[in-house]
Please model this.
Amino acid sequence: MAWLATLVIGLGLVLCLIANWPGHLSYDSEVQLLEGRQAVYANWHPYAMSWLLGIFDAVLPGTGLFVTFDTLLLFGGLLSLSRLPGKKNWATVLVAFVCIASPQFFLYPGIVWKDVLFAALAVAGHVCLVNATVYWRLPRPRFALLTLCFFLLSAAALVRQNGIVLLPPAVVALAGITARRSSGRDGLLYGLAGIAVAAIVALAAQALLGPRVHGHTGPAAQFRLLQTYDLVGALKSSPGYRLDVMAASDPSLTKNLRANGVSLYSAERNDTLSNSKSLLTALGNAKSETIAEQWRDLAFRHTGLYLKTRAEIFRWVFLAPNLSACVPYMAGVDGPPGLLRALGIPERMDARDMALKDYAATFLGTPLLSHAASALLAVGALAFLLYRRRDADIVIAAMLTGGLIFTLTFFFISIACDYRYLYFLDVAALISLFYLTLDSPISKRRAER
Model:
């Protein structure tokens, strides 16, 4: 059955590339591609992805090589797991087919989004760690795989800042596996070595690409947007909430938040607030410290109201009560005409793109397009893996733990319900299901013999 599972995954990889190449682009994708070509990063998006797009674009103009890279990482993870020692069965083949038929594997690798690159890097990193447990007795392959593991996980964190939460579970997994195979002292050393690799990658990226970053207010502006969104949400939920800090220093902004902000607010996404020119003007004239101080008042003195506001926003990103409004998939090329002209890429929505959208639409309302279903699967798989506790089990458990923690970070930072934000959770859950169908690595009893 191993050969059949490999054949199914390999065929899926080829079909995915045929269906999606050279890629699907939205506005964010196009901005990052332009940054990559110019080698100047505006600091609104993580510069690591823009840099990578620029590297691939220099070899072959466009996003075709980038899409191929994402696809190889994702499908390569499945292929690598399918080749682990142990018996395979029909369940392995069936789950492999479910994986490659899902939008998460068949469509998403062709979408040029940082969320997809993050998931692909994270999967590849954990699969390297799984293989390190298999080749543990061979020092060179072991160290090569461990180094590559933490290089990929560090790169994932550079692509999505909150993706750094994947590193601690991986470090703990490595330390635990090493302690079990050798000693607690070695476990500590290996864990520290993993952290060191991550730190080196981060420092190298900052040293090489940092000087090319312009517009250093990017993260500050994003946090200011988040704070404003939280304040308007609190006013919507509780009109009696007093903006005492803001009222004293900026009555114009206070008035706009209560009137225009509340009337336009939606827990679905923050974009609706931009429909008021008066509100945008007031925000543009406001001091960042005024907004920040009022937000701290909300978060630390009216914590219940803050959590209630964030819970409703998180409900939209996690449960997606109106999934079609949360962009569960996309195909084609869409963006501002001027930006597309600058890139030399025409707008596109051809018959192939329409067929892909129709295909993805068939999964609406099913568990394969449900973060809640993925979370349930992840929790169930995590419980079983922690109970069985083979070395490779611990790695997959670390991936699921990181995926669940990553999901929870959006409770505090989400400003829109876009489905792609939690794409990694879906992929991690599907891969864990595939892994559970494998008798791999070799059983404890055989390993002891």
